[in-house]
Amino acid sequence: MTASPEPTLSYIANTDFLRDLELVAQAIESGNWRPDFLVGIGRGGLVPAAYLSHRTDIAMLSVDHSSKVFGFADELLLKLARLTAEGTRILFVDDINDSGSTIAYLRDTILANGGIADRLRFAVLIDNSRSIARVDYRARTIDRAIDKDWFVFPWEAVAPRSRLVGEAQEMPERLG
């Protein structure tokens, strides 16, 4: 078995994170659709959602998808599906839309359980144009066919380099 290549870790400065967050906030505020709740997607979307909640004065909820604890996130997604069916508008927030699998899973689960599509939106700081999922708000767009860097957000920068490299190498198709 061949080892995955050593990834290029691209550390995002806190000032760049704040700039990106402001771009997302402005995009939300300039439109005619305002969410009733922001939902931070655990783990990477929790910090951006908290900042965005303070910036926009929109209440925040969270759903933990990254832990992969069977059934944990699904119970919360069923509640969110019910909320959208009752008229609540929900904006999910994540750090990056890379492969799109997280966003697709969340959207599909909510819609399959009675959720209403036009009351559901997604926002990210970085959006991969080749993702299988589309988002409604983004600060910047990358093309994974060209940009193979592994982005390290400010809240991840405290992790040991070995862990960051290991996480990146779990998805070798994203690396150069």
Mean pLDDT rating: 92
Structural class: alpha/beta
- Main pleated-sheet profile: 5 strands, parallel
How many strands in all?
A: 7
Provide the helix percentage.
Answer: 25-40%
Q: CATH topology, which one?
A: Rossmann fold
Estimate the strand proportion.
Answer: 15-25%
Radius of gyration: 16 Å
Description:
The chain has 176 residues and is of the alpha/beta class. 32% of the residues are buried. 36% of the residues lie in helices and 23% in strands. The strands form two sheets. Strands 3-2-4-5-6 form a five-stranded parallel sheet, sandwiched between helices. It has a two-stranded parallel sheet with strand order 1-7. The protein contains five helices and seven strands. It is globular. The model has no long low-confidence stretch (mean pLDDT 92). It has helices at residues 14-30, 46-56, 72-85, 101-112, 161-169; strands at 9-11, 37-42, 60-64, 90-97, 120-128, 137-142, 150-152. The chain has one domain: Rossmann fold (3-Layer(aba) Sandwich).
